[in-house]
UniProtKB/TrEMBL annotation:
<feature type="domain" description="EAL">
    <location>
        <begin position="23"/>
        <end position="273"/>
    </location>
</feature>
<protein>
    <recommendedName>
        <fullName>Diguanylate cyclase</fullName>
    </recommendedName>
</protein>
Amino acid sequence: AKARGRGTFCRYDQAMGSAALRRLGLEAELRDALAREQIRLVYQPVRDLAAGRVAGFEALVRWSHPGLGQVSPAEFIPLAEETGLILPLGELILRNACAAAADWPGATRLAVNLSPVQLRSAGLAALVGDALRAAGLHPRRLELEITETALLQESEEALAVLRELQAMGVSIALDDFGTGFSSLRHLTSLPVDRIKIDRSFVSEVGSRADCRAVVSSVASLARQLGLATTAEGVETAEQLRLVQAAGCTEAQGYFVSKPLALGDAVALLRQDRAQ
Ligand code: C2E
Ligand code: CA
Ligand code: CA
Ligand code: CA
């Protein structure tokens, strides 16, 4: 038992070591990638369920590293947050996404993910205003997504920044809803315009009655509060039908479309608008 214990400890220790090394290496690489702007954005369509059209796109960051291949944002965003690199990275993402969306037809919405570190940084509203002006994008076309878990921990000051953004015309979406234990009371007081129902509920909507109940309760509560609802991670026709029946206003996920390169997103939009 003792030998096994030591073996376990060694494996654990090694795993920790290589993770730490990987992080150390990645931080330098991330700085480099930022300096060279080796980071790009893909755009995942969001479908309006009543109109059956593309309502907008969510910008998702991609880092293709020459040696490491695709590094997932789930890995490098937390690292960028710890090191403070999220501020230049987040600004690059915001400016590039706004510039891309300025060429999209009509009222097509652009959603950009916002880190809580950005929300707490000084001058966020001014930065967003400047990115919109520089791109020539109307504020009403921009939505900023912040996770439920992050928003629950925010101070009054951070919430005031969100209200300032809303006053400019920018909308706010509560991302990954259902994972952060908001009380219903929160929903009436938080500065949000949309709820994005987490994929963990949507992926079970066809197989679990409790998940179906959560999705329809959230959608009907949102409707009564005047909020829009997006079902995230819709992967099948059945899930699409069920989230629509539950009253979600929009759907996003591989069944609608995977995230697309900018050119493909624009082509999809032209096709969609021609119908
Ligand atoms: P998120 O904001 O919840 O983004 C949705 C994630 O789910 C994306 O992963 C997307 O590619 C993936 N997804 C979309 N549809 C489906 C589906 O039908 N099935 C499955 N299994 N997955 C689906 P991605 O692009 O790897 O991003 C992961 C997370 O990284 C995001 O979660 C977000 O928290 C963060 N992130 C991505 N881009 C940015 C960014 O520009 N800024 C910040 N701050 N965070 C970002
Ligand atoms: Ca998001
Ligand atoms: Ca999400
Ligand atoms: Ca998620």
